[in-house]
Design a protein that fits this description.
This protein is mostly helical and 87 residues long. It is built from four helices and no strands. The protein is flat, with a radius of gyration of 15 Å. The mean pLDDT is 88. Keywords: Membrane, Transmembrane, Transmembrane helix.
Length: 87
């Protein structure tokens, strides 16, 4: 398992070249627009975030500690609830 965790060191993964501030701003913009627009369009924007979080969770699941898994599943669940609430 230690070898798997070593691959998650910054600078080694496929997303290593994506600047963190750009990702943060993209997530913030999608979330803000989704909540502000509301309705089906807002839910679709938030759905993009749900899909992204779910994909990252699925890819990193086996490398995460149980406590980190719980926290990420909780974040995903809250995001799904927010998505459903804007419909």
């Amino acid at each position: 398992m230690a070898d798997f965790k070593r691959t998650l060191i910054p600078g080694r993964g496929p997303l290593a070249k994506v600047p963190a501030p750009a990702v943060f701003l993209l997530v913030l913009a999608l979330f803000g627009a989704g909540v502000w627009v509301r309705g089906p369009v807002g839910a679709a924007l938030l759905g993009v975030l749900v899909a992204g979080v779910a994909a990252l969770l699925a890819v990193t699941w086996r490398y995460l500690e149980p406590s980190a898994r719980v926290l990420r599943v909780l974040v995903l669940a809250v995001l799904v609830l927010v998505t459903l609430s804007v419909l």
